[in-house]
Amino acid sequence: MTLADFTPALTGLYGPELPHFTVQRLPGHASARVYARIEVSEPPPGKPERMVAMCLPEDAFKSDEGGDQLTSERLPFLEMAETFHARGVPAPAILQEDLAHGVILLEDLGNLTLEAHLRQTPREHWSAVYGKAVELLAQMHDACAELPVDSIAAQRRFDGALLRWELDHFREWGLECLFGKLSRQASEMLGQAFDRIVGELQAMPFGFVHRDYQSRNLMVKPDGALAVIDFQDALQGPRVYDLVALLCDSYVALSEALQEELIAQYAARRGLDEQQITREFWWVSLHRKLKDAGRFVYIDRERGNPDFLQWYPQSLVYVGRALAKLPEMGDLDALLLNTIPGFPNKVRKPSPVLE
Q1: Which listed residue, 60, 112, 153, 239, has the most CB atoms within 10 A of its CB?
Q2: Is 126 exposed, middle or buried (0-12, 13-18, 19+ CB in 10 A)?
């Protein structure tokens, strides 16, 4: 990134007499997008002093999370931002679009993610902090319960192929890449287990899904309110999917007691049967955390970023917790116990590919 890369977008926002500005690249996560903070000296009245620039990858319309790639006239991130703003869901404002150069200027919400906030907060106060995140989740789900049929989030769906792709992602990267190819018998059993998981999820009630509603994608604003980011992959999926992403967050170790408390809060807030929501929660947890464990290894092996390997063990802690709630998946539990040393609670961080 150079200063020239941002000049067209900034000119569109500030006019031809562009004030002096500086650019600082922000730490990256798992996304193919690159982010930078731009600070402007002596901006004109009513114009921002700071903003975040999203630098888009070459194929900005394509999701790297699998699934069919739908044709869309509007960039999914921008469409979803407009949807959220229209429906009262807090998200960063769009300040300027320069799609010709792959730059979008966004409202700067600061650096404090929910994850960082939790690390500064005593655990005895986590219930209240997570309560706000659950309330925002329920608000988002209510606001986006009915979308126009041509909305990108209404057209995309967690179908069987996508659900199975995510599980096979775990087989390839989270299992066989680390521990060797499975025997024919074990591979067949794993396939049967995956079929069962996919079938259970497909039979669940579906609704709007952010797809990655977790502590790094919730920003804590100066007034303590939360805002949602990283919503470009929104789609229709199991209604508890976002709740699982929040409460089985690989970046944060939540106790089972707190999970149960917050599941009950979400069910009550949306008028849903708590027992049914809890059952759905553990099935989706099993699917999501297997996928995440595989994804973290993939990011190291294929993108050269080992930072996420440290979260592989916590993902499998949640897998083990889900399996303990689902005795009918005993064969899968036994396979993982026999294949992954220390499963589920004492798994070691995988070694980076470059070591």
Answers
A1: 153
A2: middle
Mark residue 124 as left, alpha or beta (left: phi above 0; alpha: psi -120 to 50; beta: remaining).
Answer: alpha
b/e map 265-274, b = 16+ CB within 10 Å = bbbebbebee
Q: Taking the CA atoms of the chain, what radius of gyration do you get in angstroms?
A: 21
**Is this prediction's pTM over 0.70?**
yes
Give the length of the chain.
355
DSSP annotation of 175: I
Q: Are 316 and 337 in contact (CB under 8 A)?
A: no
Distance from the Cα of residue 58 to its chain's centroid: 21
Q: What is the mean pLDDT of residues 122-131?
A: 97
Rounded Cα distance between 237 and 197, Å, is: 14
Question: What pLDDT does residue 73 have?
Answer: 78
- Enumerate residues 6+ apart whose C-beta is below 8 A from 350: 178, 297, 300, 309, 312
How remote is the C-alpha of 210 from its chain's centroid? 8
Could you write out the DSSP letters of every residue in 30-53? S-S-EEEEEEESSPPTTS-SEEEE
Which of 319, 309, 136, 128 is CA-nearest to residue 217? 136
First CA to last CA across the chain, in angstroms?
A: 29
What is the distance between the alpha carbons of residues 313 and 293, in angstroms, rounded to a whole number?
8
Q: Give the model confidence (pLDDT) of 218-249 as tens digits.
A: 999 999 999 999 999 999 999 999 999 999 99
